Each structure stands twice: as structure tokens, then as C-alpha cells.
Queue: 2 jobs
Job 1
Amino acid sequence: MKILLVDDDPVFQDILTHSLRALGHEDLTRASSAAEALTTLQSQTSPFDCILLDIQMPGMDGVSLCHILRGLPEYRRAPIVMVTSLSAKRFIDDAFAAGATDYVTKPIDRLDLKARIGMVERLVEERLHVELLTRQAGRRNEAAHADVAFESAIHIPEFDRGIELLALENYLPTLGRKGTLSMSAFAIHVENANVIYGKASRAAFVDMLSDVGLMISDALKTDDVHLAYAGAGNFVGVTSKGLSASPEEISATIELGLADFESFYSSQRLPTPRVRVGPLCRSPMFSLGNPTRILDRAIQLVMHRSGRPAHAA
Amino acid sequence: MQHEISAVAGRTSAALKSESVPVELLPARQRFRDLVVERILTLESLRIRVSNRQEPRAALSAIVALSHKIAGVAGTLGYVSAGNLAASVERAYRDQAELKLPLNDLWSLIEPRVLALMDELEALLDE
């Protein structure tokens, strides 16, 4: 795995370099600032598989660099792990909103680093597999989604406000126990997603999800939320401040926006997506389980309202 | 205050200063040790600048930035006390800066922590 380390502290760079080598990673490149990292990217013949970023650096900080990287086609989906001493919620929020995949706090723990890098390796392998399919089929859009299962928490193109489900799942434990307790989750279910999945090509199904994602982003534009697509026609969101409108009002706003696409869907012989927004749910006060269970709970609640059994997220 | 800072560090300077680290981190630990003198001198010159009110806000920010760096690595390299003291400098600054405390009050809270950190770093040189 080809890894770029960006940190202005040479001692921390040494720690990361030697720790990663001990885990079997030898293809490491170091940069001591955001500017040096950007120059390094331009000089590469093949892109890095993964980037580890410090946040607090002189000049451009790591969050701004992460945002820039996400705008580059070759790094739109590459794992970006923030490695930082900053543990306040606002830094964590900013990092995930800028597109970070994960967030590790210094001082780093050997076992924790091993687990996080293992997760990154699995992501990289999965993406290489998709790229291989794309090359073999020759048609980028169809091939990229050729093996998309209905339940898959796929990446949705043009859903700029959304982050990957994996990043959202990493976000919640990063907040710590107290931070997680202050969060609420909600789900938005596309009620006829399975019908559209059955009738449409995989690319058209993904396009439909992009349309819904766009309308969700628009309906929640004044809300401070992190959103992701969880598969099976379910979008999930988390917020620490609640939502500015009721679930019914948000559903109506999203469907009003989707009504503009009605003639397009009709021309494709597809139904227009119908959405239902679920209620906010909180983490149980005395639960010791995985904080990401709140996402499953939000999906169960919206499916219950829709009168259908929940798919696993 | 000294008592509180010792509690933050979890031990006194005279106590055991370092813990064992994985063998692959020994080069990083050596690099940290090589930088200790430079960092003590930098902290001291910045401390004097704040005390003498020579661009004190900028000097204080530089102290916090350097403490941030030390806090991020010292624990991993077995220097837990130095890491905790550096983190306490950074935490005190961030907590109090949000309350917009006057510089004098802020500095009176932070300076003892900076001095304790410098003492702890100096003690590492005796290892």
C-alpha cells in the first residue's frame, strides 16, 4: 500500500514511519506541510492508496488539505485518516465534514494503529476490485456499479453533503462516550427503492440515489448534520443540535423536489422515488454497546413507520 | 499549583521518567531526545517574551504549538510525564482562551505548567 504521511513534526513522522514498517508497510512518503504534500502528489506517477494527515500544521491545516484532496478525482475516494492531538468535537466535525475517512488521536496506540490501518487496507482492496471491474468492462459507469447489491452502502456520486457510511461509523466512536450521548440519529427511507432496483439498470439506480441525496441535502441545508447512504434505500444522518423541521415537513420538502424529476422517471418507465423521514433517536444512556447501533435503531424506526421490516445497514 | 501539576504528570521528575517502548520506536525516541535541549531553550525564550510582554500573544501561541507537538509524541515514546504536562499546557490554554481570559490571568495559569514541562524535559537529559 502506497502511503503519504503529512505532519510537521519530524518525531511524529518517525513514529508513524517505524510503526507502519513494523506492520509491513514499506512504501511510505513523508511531507512536512500541506504545500509540500500537494507538490508531492503532482510528482507521482501513480496515486497514493492512503493519506495520513495531521490537522494542526503551519500554513494550510490538515482539514483544508483534506477538502482539497477530495476535489481531486484520484483522491475522491482514497482513505484519508486524520492523525492528531486535537480531540475537541469541533475538530472532529470539521474533519469528517471535509471528507476524512477516520480520525485517530495522538499519542497513537500500537494496537489501535494496527486496527485502523487494517480497515484502510480492506477499503483499498475493495476499491482496487471495483477499478479492475471497470477496466474489464470498459464502460465506467455501468461497470463501477455492476455488482451493486441492493443492501450495499455504496458511494453515491454528486451526493456532496454525504460522507461514506464507514466514515460516519468511525465518527461516532471518535466523539467518545459523552459526545455520542449528545448525538441523535435519523433515517430517510426511499420507500420504493426495491421496486426501482428491480426495474432499473444499476447505473440508473445509483442515479436515483443521487437525486434523492441531492434533495435531502437541499431539505437539510440549514441543519448541522452528517449524512451517509446505508444501503437498501436508507440514508442515515446524525446531529447534535436536532433538526429545524419535523420529519413530515422534511419528507414533504424532499418529495416536492423529487416531483421535478417525475417526467424523467416516467420516460424511463420508473416510479418517482417516495421518501419517508424517520424520527430522531438517541443513544441509550446506559448502553455499553457500539455507538453505531444508534444508526441501526434509526433505520428500524423509519422502516417501522413504513410498515416494512428493516434491512441491516 | 505545583502539587496540581505533579498530579497531572502522575509522578514527580525524580521518579521514573521513561517507560519501555517497542524496539521499532527507538530511532524516533532518539530523535525526540536529540531535540530536547533545543525545545527547552525555545520554551524558555518564549516564556521570557510572554513575561516581558514582547508580542506575548504570538509567543504564547508558539508555546502552545510546541506543547501540542510534545504531547502528541512523548507518551508513545515512553515519556508519559512529559506528555501529560505538555497536554496540560495545551488544554489550559484552549479551555481558558474560550473564556477570553485576560492575558495576565491566562499566563498565571499557564506559566507554572510550562516551567514544570521544562523541568521534566531537563530531567530527561539526565537519563
Job 2
Amino acid sequence: MADPMRIRAQAAGGKATVRVLMSHEMESGQRKDAAGKTVPAWFIQEVTANLNGKQVLAAEWGPAVSKNPFMQFTIKGAKAGDKVAVTWKDNKGDTRTDEATVS
Amino acid sequence: MKTVFPLSIAAAMALALTPAAAQKTASQGIDEYRAMLADGNPAELFEAKGEDLWKKARGPKNASLEKCDLGKGPGVVKGAFVELPRFFADTQRVQDLESRLVSCMETLQGFNSAEISKTPFGRGEMANVTAMATWISAESKGLKFNLSQTHTQEKTFYEVGKRLFFQRGGSHDFSCASCHGEEGKRIRLQDLPVLTKNPGDGLGFAAWPAYRVSNGQMWSMQLRLNDCYRQQRFPYPGFGSDATIALSTYLGVNAKGAASIAPAIKR
């Protein structure tokens, strides 16, 4: 099971800024280990965000995104008390969803 | 031709001056980059992991670390980081945060401390020690360093640390003081703090543990010292060894009054 994400969402001026920190190795598949063997690629491929259950963001990621990635976006019309859920799915099929309340 | 000449010189001067005036120094550029990263410091992920580990019942004795005494009484975490290393009566030695955590893991949870100390950084239980150190340091964020120097052992460790700091050796005839002994030194583009005095808030001893963006690793103070010795081409000091704790005591006492920003973020 993957480690939890850290999600912060703050409303200001009719929109909410969401900051997400994900815990993931994001192995590019380009590196070799000490024995000279290629380290298999292992990275987040799909990221989605929902506001109160309605999808507001969908992204396709690749191996160029850094380890333990940070993502920030704004949602128009989101207000304090709304629920923001972020989901990622990696190329091994592992997935994780975390939720935060807009403050 | 005569009228054109001064004009072109003026134009050339304007061209040469404008970018120079707008240009930032390399360290200002790095500071900006750090400020951008600080908003999403992945050290937070390690903090969360460390807090869970501290509270979770683990090890052969299936106990949590909530009774661990970090110097301010059993279970007191807040403010402990800025007073370490210090002398502990139960172990009869001066300990830093990480060596203290390892002895708590042995006495409370039944782990083998010698085995943990031999584990490479970032692996197994050693990774857990680093995560807990990250969380414990975060609980003292903004507090000022104030190490005790009352016990004889604490004074001895400070003196030994000072000697180690100035001790030259290795193939490059280096000491800690070669890089950290005077103002204006740097390694590549990284400005180096002067560690023979208080280097200021959030610099030197007050900046570790820190997350290193370039390799995506969480670095504790023990690993920081270990790598400083590697760069000096010294043999690796043992984890939690008297030498590393003496150096930490020297740096910590010198940093008296500096506010901790740990866990920080580094290039």
C-alpha cells in the first residue's frame, strides 16, 4: 500500500488553491542499479481530482515527473467545506486516493 | 560618421548595462528556487511517516515510542530537538537525536541497536529512524537552539568536537574548518555557513534534517556529517559514534539562539 498524500486546499476570492504532495518513487526506467541492470520504470500515469465527487482535473503523467511529486492547481467556485479528492494510478496498477476539506 | 559613433557606443553601453543590472547573483537564484520548492517540501511526507512510527506499537516487545525520553521527560517531543545532543543519565552518555531514538527502540521496543546502527542510510529501520527524526525536528520548528553545557561530559564533548572540527587529515589534508571556518566559502554554488559561531537562523546545524531534491532523499544530521567526511576523503564515521555526537555538540552549542527551520529543503 502506498504512503498517504498530503493535500491542502484553501479558498480565497471565489476559488480554491489545492496543493498536493504525493509519495512515489517515480522511477524513470532509464537508471541502472549497482549490478548494471535496468531499474524497471515505475511512475504515476493518471492523476484525477474531484470536487464533491465531480471530476475537475484529469492528467496523464510520464516518467519525467520528479520523485515525491508536488502538484498545485486552482478550482473555480470551490468554497470552504467542499471536499477535494485526488487519485493517482501508477503503471503497476497501484492506486491511491486521499481527500481533504477546503478551508 | 562622427555623429554615428557616439550613438552606437551609447547603444552598446545601454545593452551592456541593462542585463547586468537585472542579473541576480547565483546564490539569489538558488534562494528563489528554494523558496519555490519550500511550498511543497516532500519532507512533510517523512514527517507524517515518522509521527506514525513513533505512535505505532512495533518491534519484538510490540510497544510504541511514546514513553521515550528525549531529554524533556518521557514522551515530550516539542522542544526536544533544539536541546540535543545532551547527557542522558540512563545511558550514561551524551546522545544526539538519532542515537537516542535507537536506544529507545532497543529499551522500549526490543530492537537490536547495534544492528540498526550498521544498516545503511535509507534502508530498513535506519530509514524509520530518519523519518522519526524528521518529525521530531519539525515539532521544534521556529524554536531557538539552546544546548545544555552543565554536565562534565557535555563540556568534554564540546571540546572534543571543536578539536575534530579543526583536525586536518585525509588525502586532501582537509578539516571541517577548511570549508566552514571563514566567510564567503562555497562548494559549487552552495554558500557554506561558518560553523565556528552562530551562523544565523536556519543555517548549518539548524537546517538538518533536510530533503534533498537532487536525489529525492531525506538526510538526517548523522548522514550530513557522514557525507562531509566522505567529501573530505576521511573514513566513514560510525553511526551514532562519539565523534559524530561530539561534532554535533560543538555545532549545536555554537548555534545557540539560532532558530531551527528543520526539516529544510536543499537543492
